[in-house]
Amino acid sequence: MLNTLCQSKMKSLSLLLVLFLFALASPALAASSGGELLDLTGHWVGYVALVVFIVAYILVIAEENLHLRKSKPVMVAAGIIWALVALVYSQHGDHHTAEAAVRHNLLEYAELFLFLLAAMTYINTMDERGVFNVLRAWLVSRGFSLRQIFWITGVLAFFISPIADNLTTALLMATVIMAVGGSNHKFVATGCINIVVAANAGGAFSPFGDITTLMVWQKGIVQFQEFFVLFLPSLANWLVPAFIMSFTVPKTMPDTIREKAEVQYGAWVVVVLFILTITMAVCSHNFLHLPPVMGMMTGLGILKMYGYYLKRRHMSLEQPIGSDLGCPALSAATNGHGNHENPPNWAIHESCPLKTDAHVEEAPKFNIFKSLERAEWDTLMFFYGIILCVGGLGTMGYLALGSQLMYGDLGPTGANVLVGFLSAIVDNIPVMFAVLAMLPEMSHGQWLLVTLTAGVGGSMLSIGSAAGVAVMGQARGIYTFFAHLKWAWAIALGYFASIAVHFMVNGSSF
What we know:
Elements: H1 2-24, H2 44-61, H3 63-66, H4 71-91, H5 97-128, H6 131-141, H7 146-164, H8 166-181, H9 185-203, H10 211-219, H11 231-246, H12 267-286, H13 292-318, H14 328-333, H15 345-351, H16 357-362, H17 368-373, H18 377-396, H19 398-408, H20 412-425, H21 428-438, H22 444-456, H23 466-474, H24 481-485, H25 488-505
């Protein structure tokens, strides 16, 4: 309970501080995003919208205590904020500006939503086919020492998250740490910290690794291949704290664990199709100049077609009772004319082994819509609320005001470094979306810097990233806010090391 209260207070106070600065700053500093937009930062509607957003975000922070899904308050807040925007413009006789602005935000959300839905469906399908179970079983059964597991899970988290996203990767590797560590809570906590940092760092140099990098890529600010110049800075971000923490991990051998897992039919085909889908998304963006989501949705359609094949294959193996294909007993029972005489089930099962329950269990029925259903719908709806809320506040002039406060007064480097700390406290998704909505004038190197800091900054606190929050729920009571906070200084060293490496390696882009 103390952990939860501390997390809630820190996050809410920090968010209130940021928005309080926005609200109290002189309205004269505010710049309209466009010539036709009204500056509502000093209007009562602007203040009401700000209070609505703060209340909604506090409810998001208190999700664990209230058992209220995080998407619900922000979706309501989005509706209220845009109603206030439309009300003011209607009073000025303008019935089109608010509509055009909200449609622009809806288009941005639709691209993100469909892209993530396709990616989540692929990940869920690979999970259903047993791909991740095989990897986990292999790791826990190989007899590695605790320190070897520490490094192996870190390396895998760093290199899997650019493809499978940091949240999925962190959860997968955390199950390995917990299975190997057992009652050694100190190792489990340290291993989970290492995984969260590695997964976030790995996701920072790939458009598919994190929501923030995906948003930057879809915005067209950084091209697909240009993200990979962040590989060395991201590697430094993970290696520095991992090297420091590894000295506390013993080289002792854990208890022997015997675990077996098998992939289901078609698992590796799904992996190949996922790689093909990623390739189509990149090609549609780079060569056809279409949104990446077109490639992802086409790939999802291919997966659904392959799912149809898997379903038909299962039906052919199942062969429902009543078909006399290849079954002498059933053929005789129907006198060869298809007229059933209610033969006993045992006779059919003995003569037709394909109809036994055991065989059906060996070939689980595949349903692509089950993988769709297992998508993180609360998260997808949360993104809707956040994007619409931030977009509404931006239409009122708050993002222009924030851009002036951060990028005008602090300068791009200072502001982008600050973005990393805000990501650890507030959450990187609304912070990055706000930066993209501000669209400050920056060099290519600075855009790469903010992509890096927003991606890895959340590692400094356990509540700063989706990976950290998810692993806290998985290793409840072991990997906690304070357990992570104990190593915050080492993670911060990695954060500044990644920035230094970025300036050294990519200095020519500034």
